[in-house]
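Provenance

Sequences were taken from public entries as deposited. Structures were produced by running a predictor on each sequence independently, with no templates supplied. The record for GTP 3',8-cyclase from Alsobacter sp. KACC 23698 is shown for reference.
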Amino acid sequence: MSESIRVPSPAQPLVDPFGRSITYLRVSVTDRCDFRCVYCMSEDMTFLPKKDLLTLEELDRLCSAFVRQGVRKLRITGGEPLVRRDIMTLFANLSRHLQSGALEELTLTTNGSQLARYAADLAACGVKRINVSLDTLDPDKFKAITRRGDLGVVLKGVEAAQKAGIAVKVNAVALKGVNEDEVERMINWAHAGGMDMTFIEVMPMGDIEPDRFDQYWPLKQLRARLMETYTLEDIPYRTGGPARYVRVKETGGRIGFITPLTHNFCESCNRVRVTCTGTLYMCLGQEDAADLRAPLRASESDEPLDAAIAAAIARKPKGHDFIIDRETSRPAVGRHMSVTGG
Ligand code: SAM
Ligand code: SF4
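Predicted structure for GTP 3',8-cyclase:
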């Protein structure tokens, strides 16, 4: 651990104007990725110059400032977080907050391509649960959706994570006409392997080549379909996120539904997101943001950073207003999901 690593002392907890405590931070550590999923990126993305990115030390300072102000759950995401060079240094340093008890959970969302390599290191850093994004179990479809991924490599990564003692949740974006015919197979596979399976509605973020309306499959329809095969029991299980869960009587496993478009979950929002350049977004579906890189770099002291965070939380909006229909298949916000990390 380097000398500049700070241990937080408790400051004011973060509460927004609507009385919601901000206890969950998602940090994108890179905008780069080894995949180009069709709903997430365009084929030829221009990535940020490396000099614009926060260094791993700055990311640590930033995360630690949030932990000091009451954040209990930290999710590392991207782009693909595991393609950032030396990313395990960040995990190793952040794990001190788990050891001190300041942080309840350190986790990540990954496409799984590098998991076989890093699973044991992640487990050693105190990572206990991860989300792996996987939209299909068909190798050809997988290649088509990700434009370059190898399903076999991801499945080996999932295996490695489980072997290392990390619980895996599988996240799939529900894509009309793409994985529609596969959802039962995916559920059976995930549940047989002891994994929860969560479906996400495609969100209107960033310009991409395909039309959003063509991809959009409302989870209400997916759920109705599943009820033809399974007995779904509503359960109060929560993981601190917006997913609503059911238990499948036949498999004993859980299915989660994340429905930003058909069900508004903003009332209980406890989270904010930081990009790899230190831009804080108070809401996934709004453009308003605060620059944290300038205060980070302005001073050795964390005071300007703490003040900038508090000022930003004081203007967290009430909610978002995503819609997708034929008239509004344009993005609701211009940035891609890989910028804020979902
Ligand atoms: N690369 C990692 C991964 O794929 O898990 C982490 C970043 S990725 C942006 C996080 C999640 O956002 C993934 O589960 C992905 O499927 C989801 N995602 C990306 N674009 C989306 C969109 N337009 N609508 C809904 N989910 C999206
Ligand atoms: Fe990469 Fe994740 Fe976006 Fe796919 S969803 S292109 S894996 S960042």
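DSSP finds eleven helices and twelve strands in the chain.
Residues 28 and 78 are 4 Å apart (CA to CA).
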